[in-house]
Amino acid sequence: MNQLRISARCVALAFAATFLTSLPGQTRTQAKTQAQNAAQRQQAMSVEQITKRVPAGVKYVADLAYREGNPAWRADLAMPTASGKPRPGVVVVHGGGWTGGDKRQGMFAEIPLELAQKGYVAISINYRFVTEAPMPACIEDVKTAVRWFRAHAKEFNVDPNRVGGFGYSAGAHLVAMLALAGPDAGLEGDGPYKDQPSNLQAACTGGTPTDLLNWDGRSPGDASRLAAKFGGPESTLNERAKRFSPVTYVSRSAPPMLLLHGNADTTVPLIQGEGLVKALRAAGAKNVNLIIFDAASHGMFNTHSAVARAALYGFLDSTIGAGLK
């Protein structure tokens, strides 16, 4: 397998060189869960704080509804103010173990602004946590968001044939599912814009859960470690874990993918990233690469921010962004 290892010294050198509203039909428990989730999201940056960071030449719009109803179905948009030919789009999906996080936390707020400054149209999205609705709800939500993005391509000046994704941790899992699980997977959900596809033309993921049935290589075929994430009966746990795993959907037609992973990651083992790349290559996928960060933990994208972001932007520029500048 071709892969790149980045040491702490390389990172240092590179850094120096580069830079309780209840909805109709809800139960009281559901409303309470939504309120708890909303309170957790309040820990993210405010719209006012982000607005102060918006670079010149970038338009920022907060809390666009990609589906009506649940307050989790919201996206923040960053796009160049300059007109011209349609631009590539990027969907950014936050992490948080499928139980937390927000589109305005840290890099998930910063990266869309940086992408817009580079000429992309980017959205950072929220989705339902598994504490509110078990999988595959979060998968269905991100698919709905991509379809919505394409349905509004003209309004946002997006080329619907050049849509990529970036996600980290749980968000990486969801982006990988967008890239690999097509309509035949039965995971499109009951959301709108069914006339639009939910696939991606490129995907970059970091600290990626890829095989929920074989988490650390020590207990293959046993999803019990992640049982709390899925809900539902134990009798179908392994079957559902397989269905919700990106590795299940590998094929030679997979879009270009770049995986970033720390080899000291104890939250999502490196075997998860390695396993997906190996499976994709075995299936005949042509543009799949893995960058391994030496001595880096699950927080790799923060501790090695300069190199990781450079890898992300370089990958997008070479795929959906080709010819952008």
What topology does this entry show?
Elements: E1 3-6, H1 8-17, H2 28-41, H3 47-51, E2 58-65, E3 74-80, E4 87-93, H4 107-117, E5 121-125, H5 137-151, H6 153-156, E6 158-168, H7 170-180, E7 202-206, H8 227-230, H9 237-243, E8 257-262, H10 270-283, E9 288-293, H11 300-303, H12 305-318
Parallel strand pairs: 1-9, 4-5, 4-6, 6-7, 7-8, 8-9
Antiparallel strand pairs: 2-3, 3-5
SSE string, helices as H and strands as E = EHHHEEEHEHHEHEHHEHEHH
Number of strands: 9
Strand order of the largest sheet: 1-9-8-7-6-4-5-3-2
**How many separate helices?**
12
Secondary structure class reads alpha/beta
* Low-pLDDT windows of residues: 7-26
Shape: globular
Euclidean distance between termini CA atoms: 32 Å
Radius of gyration: 19 Å
Note the main sheet. Answer: 9 strands, mixed
What portion of residues is helical?
Answer: 25-40%
What would the average pLDDT be, to the nearest integer?
89
**Into which percentage range does the β-strand content fall?**
15-25%
Highlighted features:
325 residues, 9-stranded mixed β-sheet, alpha/beta
Commentary on this structure:
The chain has 325 residues and is α/β, with parallel strands linked by helices. 35% of the residues lie in helices and 18% in strands. It contains 12 helices and 9 strands. Strands 1-9-8-7-6-4-5-3-2 form a 9-stranded mixed sheet, with helices on both faces. The longest helix has 15 residues, at 137-151. It is globular. Residues 7-26 have low confidence and may be disordered.
What would a concise description of this structure say?
Helix 5 packs across helix 7. The protein has twelve helices and nine strands.
